[in-house]
Amino acid sequence: MAKPKIATASLAGCFGCHMSLLDIDDRILKLVELVDFDKSPVDDIKKFTGRCAVGLIEGGCCNEENVHNLQYFRENCDILISVGECAIMGGIPAMRNNIPLKECLDEAYLNGPTVYNPSGKIPGDKELPLILDRVYPCHEVVKMDYYLPGCPPPADLLWQALVALLENKPMDLPYEVIKYD
Amino acid sequence: MSDKIKFTMDGVEIEATQGQTIMQAADEAGIYIPRLCAHKDLLPFGSCRVCTVMVNDRPQAACTQPVSPGMAVDSETPELNDIRRSIVEMLFVEGNHYCAFCEKSGNCELQALGYRLGMLAPRYPYMFNKHDVDASHPDIYIDHNRCILCGRCVRSSKELDGKNVFQFVGRGIHKRVAFNSDTDLSGTDVSVTDRAIENCPVGAILKKRSAYAVPIGKRKYDSQPIGSDIESRKAAVKQS
User: Fold this and answer.
1) Among B42, B59, B76, which residue terminates a domain?
2) Mind listing the pLDDT tens digit for each residue in B46-103?
3) Is residue B236 part of a domain?
4) Whole domain around residue B158: which residue ranges?
């Protein structure tokens, strides 16, 4: 029987959650025995090659590309999981959420004390994904099936949750591994 | 005449002293009822409703309701814990609680209740309201983003410090903690040793230059759920 496939993505995140996944140390060898990686920065596969059992999403949605990517994952994954505080509540990028977008862009590209921008314009190239009015948690954009909190979630949490899912067992996660920081 | 009475908590008979609240009696018996605004050194306030229990099938705040003989109290039920979690979730979406960099993380009672009650993500949409930070005082700062309006600072200042530094202003979503000052926090007679500072359950009122002193893994709620200290009394109560 073919191994189940998992996919991962980092939206508006820092890749810290992916680092935490690598932090499972030698269990990564067992993980490769358990699953195949599909679309993921880990193997640099850009497009889904087939249906995935589990999708791990790091980061919230700060631009339209994040939204499209998240919807693409929802279409191709049976179980979609918000991994880490940014996916769950926006995280550090969401600190801009109570500041008007124009003020943020003006500060970043025009008025900030260290800005060097001879054009005097805010970047607006068509190739750049359009930035959203605020940063959205993943579950406010598509249906998410599970949440693994932490900044980053501990490697033990990611490992135990993944193994439970793949072996079709209930998630019986110990107190120590579920933390919001 | 004895002033001892008996009532049941989740079907188990408990002895209490006449005049105690349900919460005080439960604490003595080693039964933890989740709470946020209640503090053992402060008068009962009954504002957060996290300690809601069913008394003879009617909801009551355990921190304000006195015990009476024969009452049947339910606390650890899935329904009540779901209501408690929903209150905690509302507090999380109403403020801006970035646990990742908050100095109180690991020692925060709101966060610890989230852990104990099994909150993974709030069921309500985040509001991202705008709140101010007042860092004008040389030793203390207040971050309204993290304030849950429990009133512990207001009450501690009055009841324990003999001052009147903090007070609520505004109503509903506009309610916030204000200072007894014409200017800002530095214009009050607050002191870094005030009980009002240490009794803040979250990271809203903090002492400056004291952050991150305890490493991750050794903080108050890193390995023990909130209420474990009270529950550990249960074994002692049984033995005696």
Assistant:
1) B76
2) 999 999 999 999 999 999 999 999 999 999 999 999 999 999 999 999 999 999 999 9
3) no
4) 84-207
**Which residues of chain B make contact with A146, given a CB cutoff of 8 A?**
120
Using an 8 Å CB-CB cutoff, list chain B residues near A139. 121
Contacts of B79 (CB under 8 A, 6+ apart): none
Q: How many domains does chain B have?
A: 2
CB contact under 8 A, B126 and A151: no
If you measure CA to CA, which chain A residue comes closest to B99? A181
Q: Do B40 and B70 share a domain, yes or no? A: yes
Contacts of A151 in chain B (CB under 8 A): 99-100
pLDDT digits (tens, 9 = 90+) for A130-164: 999 999 999 999 999 999 999 999 999 999 999 99
Asked whether residue B230 is domain-assigned, the answer is no
Asked if B126 lies within 8 A of A82 by C-beta distance, the reply is: no
Q: Say if CB A16 and CB A84 are below 8 A apart.
A: yes
Domains, in order of start, for chain A: 5-96+134-177 (3.40.50.700)
CATH number for B37: 3.10.20.740
Q: Give dist(CA A9, CA A66) in Å, integer.
A: 10
Same structural domain for residues B69 and B88?
A: no
Distance from CA of A99 to the nearest CA of B (A): 8
Q: Cα B101–B104–B107 angle (5° rounding)?
A: 130
The residues on B that touch A, with CB distances below 8 Å, are 92, 96, 98-102, 105-106, 111, 114-115, 120-122, 125-126, 128-131, 216, 222-223, 225
Range list of H helices, chain A: 16-22, 27-34, 64-76, 85-89, 101-106, 155-166
pLDDT tens profile A90-121: 999 999 999 999 999 999 999 999 999 999 99
Residues B164 and B201 in one domain: yes
